Request: fold
Amino acid sequence: MDGILELLGNSGITATQALMFILLLLVLPLLALFASQLRAGKRISIRPIRAFERLGTLIGQSAETGQPVHMSLGVGGIVDPSTAESLAGLALMEHVATEATACGAPLTVTVSDPTLLPLAQDTSRRVWETHPYQYQVQEPEARMIAPDATAYAAGVMDILLGERVAANIMVGRFGPEYLLMGETGVKSRVPQIVGAADPQVLPFVHATADDMLLGEEMFAVGAYLRPRPVHIASLRVQDWLRVFLILIIVLGVLLRSL
Amino acid sequence: MKVKFGRSLAIAITIGTGLLVLANFFVRNEFLRRVQQTLLDWAMILAAVALLLGAVNVVATHLRKIRGRRPGWAYSLFLLAALGTVVLLGFLDPRGVASPAVSWVFLYVHVPLQATIFALTAFFIASAAYRAFRVRSVDSFIMLVAGIIVLLGQVPLGQAIWDRIAAAKDWILAYPSTGGARGIILGVALGTILTGLRVLLGIDRPHVK
Amino acid sequence: MIYCPNCGTANRDGSSFCNQCGQRLGGGSKATCPFCGAENPIENIFCDACGAKLAPLVTPGVEEKEKPTLKGLSLPTKPAGDEEGVPDSEAAVPQEPSAPEGEEEIPDWLARLRASLGEASEPAEEPPATEEFAAEVPGEGTELPEEELPDWLRELRAQPAPEEAGEEQVAPAVEEFAAAVPDEGAELPEEELPDWLRELRAQPAPEEEAPAVEEFAAEVPEQESPAEPEAEEVAPPVATPALAEQPEAEAPTAGIPALSEGEQPAAEVEPLAAWLQEEGPVILELSEEEMAEGGKEAPPVALGPDVPAWLETLASGAAVLPEELGPVLPTPGKPTPEEVGLERAAIPSWLEVLRPGRKREEGEEAPAEEPVETEGMLEGVRGALRLVPNIDPGPDQFVRAVSAAATVTPAHAETLTQVLARSTASSVRPRTVPVPRRERGLPWLAFLLLLAAVLIPLVAPGLVPGGALVPSARSAGDFAAQVQSLPPGAKVLISFDYDPSVSTELDWPVREVINDLKAKGATLLVMSTTPTGPGLAARMGLADTATLLGYLPGQEMGLQRLATSFSGAFLVDYQGRSVDEAALGVRSLGDMALIITAASSQDTVRWWVEQVGSQLNTPICAIVSGAIEPSVRPYYSSGQLTGLVSGWVGGLAYRQAISPDASLDAQGKAAVEAQSLGHLAIVVLIVLGNLAYWGKRLFGGRS
Reply:
């Protein structure tokens, strides 16, 4: 093991680079293979995730009561490490916005990072424009509250307390300030669906959300809500890579201790 | 047709720039490094422009609220006034953010307010803990015990109660807790890689119609 | 949820028809698993055979999901009548009864239209073509015995129709979808509600009367006998797509004249208004009555969703002409003899409108806005197909384009918006759930406990067991050792990477470290990876003793750049002066004797470790908030961080390691004691929570 690393190091390749390269080499063919298998009719099952199934119910409740759905895309942006989480939030937002617009549920989307705002606005506009009676339905409102996480949390607390929200959906990057929002949602008895990836925030999510998307579950939005073979294949690749990583970890432990 | 072309172009740009940055991760090449540097600079500029757009959005939202006399519109008025004041202070002094006036606002308004709101977390943790640590099963009992050990192990009081509590806390944090967290992080990392690749390959297109 | 096998729309449990495309749900329908090909009951979300998720995968062409589709929720739209005998309807396209001349390639609706045009040119009152429709709409011609109508419906019928409506309310836009909307200039009675809207509110019409309209969305199978009186399930109609619910039987005669005679709709505005004043706003009551009638559960009823729900119906794959929409929103109004007998309903009123060469009656105004088709097979039809230029050939797009163009006027939209806003504000405000008494005092309890935790150490220092004797921390000791071993003049880079929100926690340890560094005579360089960092650094009184480099943008990438070339990263300092690296004696980060990051996010620490620590041998220490300590500690354990101080407690441990004999200042002691008590308060709350929970569980809570 050390020999391999030394060899790599001599040729100017770090272990991280090597591992990433192997992962990348594995991902693309696997993705293509699984996608083609699925297209050819291969069977595959994905476990149900309650949060995805409850989304529709919450939106329906919002439509019935006329109270808005609040959706938070977190405090991350798209030019930093939180990009993937923010994109997962956006993917879910597209689905929520489509359903909400379709059944007339008012939707408010809030972001903290300004780089996410144009994307959120574009998504809501796009969803609205495809609605057959766009002038008779409300365009989902996408707005920025504050670029600062704590100030953003304060703004969301105000929405949760003041705007009689029918449901609170939060998917994206969150820090410790999540608790301010999540607990306010609990106090104002708003049903909450929360997706977060930060292990530091997950306990808070567990304590406050009715349904949650834990960690990688939030990246499965595509596979669950807009299923295309390639999305399901992507989930499958993820599982295979996980097995691969576990093997590497076990191997590494064995090599180190032997 | 025009739309389709624009869409293809956007996807092509995404894939192209993504591949360049990715290549820079694997290959040490001065040209690639410069390209990445330029792209990053652009991203900074875009982020700054986005911040401007965000400010416009904030102003528009609150103007609407004020015009419609919606509940809490007075707060919006206050927000706009504060926003205007700080921006004005920044522009009036050639030193910008380093000007004494802006520094004063930052030190004596921004920082204390932030700290205050964040301090609310203590209350929220208290009430969340009241609800979340119910002993409903063996699992939740274990979680409760671990939670109490970690809580008390971090402060001198716990040390006074049981002198090994800090060690117990360190063990919990170092092994079960970190192990679980790493499992989650690995899963998230894989999800991130796949999400990134889907965007890179043009499968997910959050940015184009 | 039942997922539609045709379009994938999620429909509420109990739905019999998809609200999106009209596909029959339940009954004998089968969904084919796209993965293993097994036949599944349509209600299945997962395949019986292979467990694959069926919905919404079960679309005919998976790639077609690319197109923007609308997926909405529908409330149950159970038609009365037998559930049995419905043919399997796997086919995506509802089967139309034979199109005339067997012109397969012509869309069905067009074929129908053509047929009706061809034959309707005869001046006959009931052109033969319409019989085809009569046949398709089962039960339309049957009589509904009066006694089988629910009471509330009979009340509706009994409403007299006052005739005082003014002439100016003649609606010129009768052929539009909002058939009975008075002209914009005309006064709108009843708070300016267009009456089509009011009808929507007021349409608690049982499905059993005539699912006539559903024919357009999807062919209602012939076996249905919608007029069956002992229907076990009366459809709760209010929140269902109104289109699919409109009873032809309820106002068949009203519907037709409303379109052929301009005056009629206006005349019906008033009775509706009167009726609405009684019942209109309280749709919930109607639905409750109806629940009683039907003996079946009705879904929650709401005003707002009504409209959008039927709007969504329009978005279905079936081609719906805007003209069809008007007549199917009949006005319950003047009871006429025909109303009980359903004879005249045999001519669908929308067809009546479409009939070209229709004799205009005396006094009927020509609808002004609708252009007359001058060529092609639709010649003579007024506003039948308002083709907009950018029509996509796809059926979805077509419907959207046509319907949107034909119906949307700004005034219309505005009214709808107003009405929706009003209705949600007034009639369907949900009950607020009272907070259980048990938890009502909780915030106060938490507040008091935490207040005590803060106040006790201030008022009576030294009372707390353990005092400020912090647990010895090796990580803080390592930190202190490195600071102490610095030679005079050593260059130390301090990065302020924390938020103002944790400034109360981190300011103190950071200040302690900086004071020690100053005492050691170190050369301090101060930077930040967050925009607020320089402001925080400015509070430390560093201006004269340190070089303030300011904010380094780019986060992780910024640090990567900093590690590769220090000179390129900072061109100007915080004050805007250009940085002279030569004078500083710094050419790269490697010249630093120590790097200290004060961070409130584990990401920042990770960036330092990965981007800087992996490239240079410079030791990196971190001062972090207590919240992120668990996620940062592994970096210390692995040696990537050479020292770690977390929060107040870590700061005290550092202090004790630097000077074991020095007594702590009062502020530090009070802070640590308060933290002790705060943690204790949370433990107390946890215990109380469990007592409450188990007390209720063991000694019988009511709930």
Q: What stands out?
A: The longest helix of chain A spans residues 229-257. DSSP finds ten helices and six strands in chain A.
